[in-house]
Specification:
The chain has about 150 residues and is of the alpha+beta class. It is about 30% helix and about 25% strand. It is built from four helices and five strands. A five-stranded mixed sheet has the order 1-2-3-4-5, with helices on both faces. Strand 4, helix 3 and strand 5 form a beta-alpha-beta unit. The relative contact order is 0.14.
Length: about 150
């Protein structure tokens, strides 16, 4: 297995995995719009970076992150938006390898911390994060305003 930053050639594979993520969370298993993916990841002003876990040509999982500023004072943090391992690749160390790559990306970018959220109704994710030794933080409430 290897972890690599996604390239424009990976848009179709990312689209399929995004469809699987939607299905995992109860939505329609519709692949993501490739034009939106290309714009979000590979335009002149990318919104995120995607790391892909691969075995040969097979994509086993992905981690999507953005840098946030300010974190503490004038520091920068890395925000992990999505960590997903495809069902056929679970329990093979893929999530752990992706998390290590995310931490390395944060260190390379000079980030003071890595932050993320997890759904309270996703016990396998919560157990994975607990196994990493990371404690949930209290003190913040999550908000979402839908676009117009």
């Amino acid at each position: 297995m290897r972890i690599e930053q996604a390239t424009p050639e990976d848009v179709d594979a990312i689209s399929v995995v995004l469809g699987e993520i939607e299905a995992y969370y109860g939505g329609k298993p519709t692949p993501g719009d490739t034009d939106q993916i290309r714009s979000a990841l590979f335009s002149g002003r990318p919104a995120a970076t995607v790391l892909l876990a691969r075995d040969g040509d097979d994509v086993w999982g992905l981690a999507s992150y953005s840098l946030l500023w300010p974190a503490a004072g004038a520091e920068t943090s890395l925000y992990l938006k999505e960590l997903y391992v495809r069902e056929s690749a679970r329990r093979r160390g893929v999530a752990g390898a992706l998390m290590e790559a995310v931490k390395a990306a944060a260190a390379e970018a000079g980030c003071s911390r890595v932050e993320w959220t997890a759904d309270t109704d996703n016990p396998s994710a919560l157990a994975f994060y607990a196994a990493l030794g990371v404690e949930p933080r209290n003190g913040k409430i999550f908000y979402r305003a839908e676009g117009s």
